[in-house]
Amino acid sequence: DADVTQTPRNRITKTGKRIMLECSQTKGHDRMYWYRQDPGLGLRLIYYSFDVKDINKGEISDGYSVSRQAQAKFSLSLESAIPNQTALYFCATSTGTGNYGYTFGSGTRLTVV
Amino acid sequence: GENVEQHPSTLSVQEGDSAVIKCTYSDSASNYFPWYKQELGKRPQLIIDIRSNVGEKKDQRIAVTLNKTAKHFSLHITETQPEDSAVYFCAAKGYTEGAQKLVFGQGTRLTINP
Fold first, then answer.
1. For residue B84, what is the DSSP state?
2. Would you call A38 an interface residue with chain B, using a CB distance cutoff of 8 Å?
3. How far A81 CA lies from chain B's nearest CA (Å)?
4. Is B47 an 8 Å CB contact of chain A?
5. Max Cα distance, chain A (Å)
6. How many Cβ atoms sit within 10 Å of the Cβ of residue A89?
């Protein structure tokens, strides 16, 4: 689905560099999330936002920051990348009402060397 | 807050056989339970879900059952095919850290052997 778009798809960066991962959605959902997935591990929540003025830390927020620029845009930043932040990153969205699942973006594979 | 445990972590079955993946949850107030399939290198995609007022739901070869008393739910795949090989995640919608959101299990890597 092109309705949750992540950029870039792949990125290699050097230790200590600042990097931003971007997510945009056309689903009209209020809620947006950033997850990290490591090999053999599940989905771990980094940050989430229930509306433009709402930002919340997830279970592994250290070393990350986010910005909700608009209802449709939610960016994740690594201020000073380190090798153990090498992972697959997913953005997800959901409606704020009713019981429905999340829609995931196509993911960003980040390698920190 | 909500905690979801998923078993087994890996599962290998012969093509045509059935596969069952089980999850337990801790928050009795959780009311929505989706299942996601993630093929290699791709995004997790919702394949089936169940709400707490329903005990079972079926969609072609996949079904989900929910036992609210025991706080567990299961994914059943019948007549498995090679394209069923993937990682499957269960989730429960419950309260964690003051907010209601999905809590995911650790995932099950399902391999279908031809």
1. G
2. no
3. 23
4. no
5. 42
6. 22
Segment B61-73, tens digit of pLDDT: 999 999 999 999 9
Q: How far apart are CA A67 and CA A73, in angstroms?
A: 8
DSSP state of B17: S
pLDDT at A86: 97
What are the structure tokens assigned to B48, written together?
């089936």
From CA B9, how far away is CA A69, in angstroms rounded? 38
pLDDT in tens, B24-53: 999 999 999 999 999 998 999 999 999 988
Which of B4, B1, B27, B2 has the alpha carbon at shortest distance from B75? B4
Task: Phi first, then psi: give them for residue A85, nearest 5 degrees.
Answer: -95, 5
- For residue A107, CA distances in Å to A1, A10, A23, A73, A74 come to 12, 9, 9, 15, 14
| Burial zone of B98 (CB within 10 Å; 0-12 exposed, 13-18 middle, 19+ buried) | exposed
Whether B76 and B61 have beta carbons less than 8 Å apart is answered as: no
pLDDT, chain B, mean? 94
pLDDT at B9 over 70: yes
Cβ neighbourhood burial of B109 (10 Å; 0-12, 13-18, 19+): middle
Sign of CA dihedral A16, A57, B45, A106: negative
Task: Fill in the DSSP letter of residue B102.
Answer: E
β-bridge partners, B14: B113
* A104 touches B: beta carbon within 8 Å: yes
Query: Mean pLDDT of all residues in chain A?
Result: 94
